[in-house]
Write a structure and sequence with these properties.
The strands form two sheets. An eight-stranded mixed sheet has the order 2-3-6-7-8-9-10-11, with helices on both faces. Strands 1-5-4 form a three-stranded mixed sheet. α10 (about 235-250) runs parallel beside α11 (about 275-290). It has helices at about 10-15, 45-55, 60-65, 70-75, 110-120, 140-155, 170-180, 195-200, 205-220, 235-250, 275-290, 305-315; strands spanning about 5-10, 60, 80-85, 85-90, 100, 125-130, 160, 185, 225-230, 255-260, 290-295. β7, α7 (about 170-180) and β8 (about 185) form a beta-alpha-beta unit. Helices cover about 40% and strands about 15% of the residues. It is built from twelve helices and eleven strands. It is of the alpha/beta class.
């Protein structure tokens, strides 16, 4: 088991000092509306699951990205596991995950992950990772190793992956994953193309769409999924245009949620989207042909993933 000794991990201002469009601190941040109320994360059930994760040296995006649903999900005994360490090679200004030089992949992680998931008795698990631009395959081989270990330990388990964009390595990465396919393939678009340079430096809008299309082509029985944050300055018509792009590239499941600023050093919230507006976008997405659209202020890409996948499957069948 490797120790998490990292070379200068950075958060906040240190992490974001070298992005192309600098974050301007807001002198008067928007007040949170009353519908943005998440469950208190400090419950005994949450602490118990955190203890299990620490015992097995595993990371969750729930903790590393300061997800507002951590209390609800951990209390239900579910988590989105973040493989390949907790240090990202990119500096996205909406994200609270640390930036730095990560360690090589931990060869023992797939076995520890499989043991933990089996002990938790999960039916549906989500695997995600930081961006690993330092690896020749972007981390795809490690994803495949984790899937194989999970399948061996828990044959009936549904496995969803939420992958990075595998910048410059997408064909190689998808070839590796197609040999060990998940049950759901997710890659987040995050925002509309106009905001990419500001919000996703290092990523490419067309490249992310192509990744989803190629995943659908190479793994025809695996539904593709994507997630979008609202509140970064996008307009609703741009969100609908993004939905159309996703459908044109074969995406079948969509999540829409409210962006929340992790700290004053991150991108500010430029609008809070009301629940009724989320519902209207959900109905628009269903009319465009998505099998399922989960939309709401606290929805995240892996939030209630088991229920969303089941609803999408029912949508395809019905």
């Amino acid at each position: 088991m490797q120790s998490e000794v990292l070379a200068g991990p950075q958060r906040g201002a240190g992490k974001l000092s070298r992005i192309p469009i600098k974050v301007v601190r807001s002198t008067a941040p928007l007040a949170k509306p009353p519908w943005l109320r998440a469950r208190d994360p400090g419950t005994p059930a949450v602490r118990a699951l955190q203890s299990i994760l620490r015992d097995h040296s595993l990371h969750t995006v729930c903790e590393e990205a300061a997800c507002p649903n951590i209390g609800e999900c951990f209390a239900a005994g579910t988590a989105t596991f973040m493989i390949l360490g907790a240090i990202c090679t990119r500096r996205c200004p909406f994200c609270d995950v640390a930036h730095g030089r990560p360690l090589p992949p931990d060869g023992d992680e797939p076995a520890r992950l499989a043991t933990t998931v089996a002990a938790m008795g999960l039916r549906h698990v989500v695997l995600t990772s930081v961006d690993r631009d330092d690896l020749r395959d972007g981390g795809a081989s490690h994803f495949a190793a984790c899937i194989a270990a999970l399948r061996e330990a828990s044959p009936t388990l549904a496995i969803e992956v939420l992958t990075p964009d595998f910048r410059g390595r997408a064909e190689q990465a998808l070839g590796i994953l197609a040999a060990e396919p998940p049950d759901v393939f997710n890659h987040n678009m995050e925002t509309v193309p106009r905001l990419y340079r500001e919000a996703r430096p290092g990523a490419d809008y067309a490249g992310s769409l192509q990744l989803l299309a190629e995943a659908a082509r190479r793994m025809p029985g695996v539904p593709t999924k994507s997630g979008v944050m609202l509140g970064l300055g996008e307009r609703d018509d741009e969100v609908v245009a993004l939905m159309r792009d996703l459908r044109a590239h074969g995406c079948r499941i969509l999540t829409l949620g409210q962006y929340l600023q992790p700290s004053a050093d991150h991108l500010p919230v430029r609008r809070y989207v009301a629940p009724k507006a989320f519902e209207l976008l959900r109905l628009t997405g269903l009319a465009l042909g998505f099998d399922e659209v989960a939309a709401g202020p606290l929805v995240r890409s892996s939030y209630q993933a088991e229920q969303v996948a089941a609803a999408a499957d029912a949508g395809r069948r019905g």
